[in-house]
Specification:
The protein has 697 residues and is of the alpha/beta class. The protein contains 25 helices and 24 strands.
Length: 697
């Protein structure tokens, strides 16, 4: 009943059956008195009627409820000090809190926010880019880059007199958006006019007044950047009262999207945040602290924004793919973060308007790794002249080798019903072997017993929670933070799952085609959201992405190519293009005979193929199909690790390198993993030969 994992399945089934039969409901108050836990968290937001904040609430609730927590919503209102004061009483009634404003934090810790927090309960901030200085974890969007892209778009349309209406100068998000606005003007060599920057409140009434003052003082203004959707409504109201048309007389763009039924939803050009994902990530950071007895350092999670061009600025609208989905998926052009060099260069010019602009770069940017850069360049075909061949192993998790290299037993952690070597030990093993990256994969299996016993409408696919995904990948990113080893995101693909579901449903269901379509769409929605959620948070830490699947066996493709394209093509292409939007190469890993598969992969947009079973493939034919426009990985037989002489191992390396590396888009690696006994001398000979092929560091 408490969610313990050390319970036999048959025991769990009996207890659950008894609970259902008796209608038992636990007494939550009695349980909290005994455990001193309430299984409740609080979320404080400034405005419950704003689309951004209601969507943040949904993200927090979905993540918290999936982990067995209730969420208490506190609407603190923009100007209400009384609502801020009651937070001090709520903090003692919950296990932790998520806050959204500096004033809320001050109400709990006192006026000096830079001091060590006296609050005993875990706290996470959302929307506050400067919260890292307060020694508190936080989740926020990249407002600087978003405002830069909005302003840059207006400049590209010919506007030169561009104003910005924003929140208070003390607000981190308001300052960040002015910084991005100013940086775009600086880059375009346009002057920064203080009269075009209007500081106020994040509400429509303040914005309407500020816009009236702006038009009076700067009548030659042709475009306005609104710092959020409420401000955009106020700006539009002021323009309507003066009979100024949008976009004919004034172009208008803003941060944040609108309720779908709002008149602005299909009209306003926006830099759209991912409020649902902000909520999920905030809940994840908080739950991680609640579930751990160890010290966890504070974290800053910076999520990207996306540009959606509509009619309000006069530009060509962004094509939007309308899809039914069970999750919040933000569409539009992904806005990549600005470089720290760009901010440093513009800092002197912006400091008059945004005094802390020099500090923004510390929170937004991370140092790249040479190994990660080389892997990306090779896989993208941008490593011309590079003499070093990268080395990446997909399935080398042999306990015997780990004991040999680590000189101790490897440590394991349990995920579901699977034991996996810890991220820290995988990173250390890779360092000692000279590998450039390690794969981060989340093991799970579809519960087919449940699939057959539960109605398809009840979502029978038991898949990992989003917070579970975030925690799993975060453990790898943290382990590799100060190591020169990169992380390869291993996302499970859906082809093999759907084919397996089809076989299961066909043998036991009177309408398998209908149910399969529903299940396939649900599975695609889940994978699509997984890609967005994890890449938004961790794309800077990934070397590339592998989609692992089973498309073929020893005879070739599991289904005819034309059927494959009809069933899977649009969804796969969408996922591949989504990943590439982050600047990440995408590779397919599939066992089987993959001769002739390169053409299909290139149509789908893949950058490379990991050859998992070189013994049954014609490597020369694969290389001919790949040429210089496609990358190849792996291709070295694991049979080399079984009592082969060093001479034979080196000869095999030379053969594979000569065959697959002709186009300079080759990453060294073994085929399918060997989990049995491995000759240690052969393995060390393998590493020596690999080092020789890779060249000097």
């Amino acid at each position: 009943m408490n969610g313990a994992t050390n319970v036999l399945p048959e025991t769990r089934f009996k207890v659950q059956a008894a609970i259902a039969e008796l209608g038992y409901q636990p007494n939550l108050q009695a349980r909290s008195l005994r455990s001193r836990r309430t299984d409740t968290i609080a979320l404080a937001i400034p405005e419950l009627t704003n689309y951004f904040w209601t969507t943040v609430v949904r993200g927090v609730q979905d993540a918290a409820q999936a982990s067995g927590y209730h969420v208490l919503i506190c609407n603190t209102l923009t100007k209400s000090r009384q609502n801020l004061r009651y937070l001090t009483s709520i903090i003692n009634r919950v296990d932790g809190m998520i806050l959204s404003r500096k004033s809320e934090w001050e109400a709990l810790v006192g006026a000096e926010v830079n001091s060590a927090s006296p609050v005993s309960k875990p706290i996470v901030m959302v929307g506050q880019s400067h919260a890292a200085r307060w020694n508190v974890s936080n989740v926020y969007s990249d407002s600087v880059s978003g405002a830069f892209r909005l302003t840059e778009h207006l400049i590209s349309l010919g506007h030169r007199q561009i104003a910005i209406v924003t929140g208070r100068q003390s607000s981190a998000s308001a300052s960040d958006r002015v910084a991005g606005y100013g940086l775009a003007l600086y880059k375009a060599q346009l002057p920064l006019n203080n009269n075009l920057i209007r500081w106020g409140e994040y509400d429509r009434h303040s914005a309407e007044r500020l816009t009236a003052e702006l038009l009076e003082a700067q009548p030659d203004t042709t475009a306005i950047v609104a710092a959020n959707n409420e401000i955009a409504i106020g700006v539009a109201q002021a323009l309507e009262k003066r009979r100024k048309r949008i976009p004919q007389d004034m172009a208008l763009v803003c941060f944040d999207d609108f309720y779908p039924d709002s008149r602005f939803a299909s009209f306003m050009t926006v830099a759209s945040q991912s409020p649902y994902d902000i909520g999920i990530n905030a809940a994840d950071l908080l739950l991680k602290r609640l579930h751990s007895d160890d010290y966890i350092p504070t974290q800053s999670v910076v999520l990207p924004t996306r540009l959606i061009v509509r009619q309000s600025c006069g530009g060509t609208p962004t094509p939007i793919v309308e899809m039914d989905t069970a999750y919040e998926v933000v569409q539009g052009e992904l806005i990549l973060p600005l470089t720290p060099e760009a901010l440093r260069e513009a800092s002197p010019s912006l400091s008059l308007y945004v005094p802390n602009v020099a500090d923004i770069q510390d929170d937004l940017f991370r140092t790249d790794k040479v190994n990660v850069t080389l892997l990306k360049k090779v896989l993208l075909g941008q490593a011309e002249g590079q003499h070093r061949t990268p080395h990446f192993e997909y399935e080398l998790a042999n306990p015997q080798l780990y004991r040999t290299l680590l000189e101790r037993e490897p440590r394991y952690e349990e995920l579901g019903h699977t034991q996996v070597i810890t991220a820290e030990d995988q990173i250390e093993f890779a360092l000692r072997c000279g590998f450039d990256a390690v794969p981060c994969r989340l093991p799970y299996q579809i519960d087919r017993e449940q699939l057959l016993s539960v109605d398809v409408q009840d979502w029978p696919l038991v898949l990992p929670r989003f917070t579970e995904l975030l925690d799993w990948f975060d453990s790898y990113v943290r382990a590799a933070k100060r190591a020169k080893v990169g992380i390869v995101a291993d996302f499970r693909c859906m082809v093999a799952d759907i084919l397996s579901l089809w076989d299961t449903l066909k043998s036991s269901n009177s309408q398998p085609e209908v149910n399969l379509r529903q299940l396939a769409q649900s599975l695609f929605d889940y994978h699509r959201k997984t890609v967005q959620l994890l890449c938004d948070r961790f794309s800077h830490d990934f070397a590339f992405v592998i989609l692992s699947d089973r498309w073929a066996d020893e005879r070739g493709m599991l289904i005819p190519t034309d059927s494959f394209e009809k069933i899977f093509y649009p969804q796969l292409q969408f996922i591949v293009q989504s990943i590439q939007g982050y600047g990440l190469p995408v590779v397919l890993h599939t066992p089987g005979k993959v001769d002739g598969l390169i053409g299909l992969l290139r149509q789908l947009g893949f950058d490379g193929l990991y050859i998992a079973q070189p013994e049954i493939n014609d490597l020369a034919a694969i290389q001919r199909d790949a040429g210089r426009a496609f990358s190849l990985l792996g291709g070295v037989s694991t049979a080399l690790l079984n009592h082969q002489s060093e001479v034979l191992i080196e000869a095999e390396f030379q053969r594979v390198a000569a065959t697959l590396g002709g186009g300079q888009r080759y990453v060294l690696g073994l085929g399918e993993g060997n989990h049995g006994e491995i000759d240690r001398q052969s393995f060390f000979a393998y590493l020596r030969s690999a080092t020789g092929l890779k060249g000097s560091e």
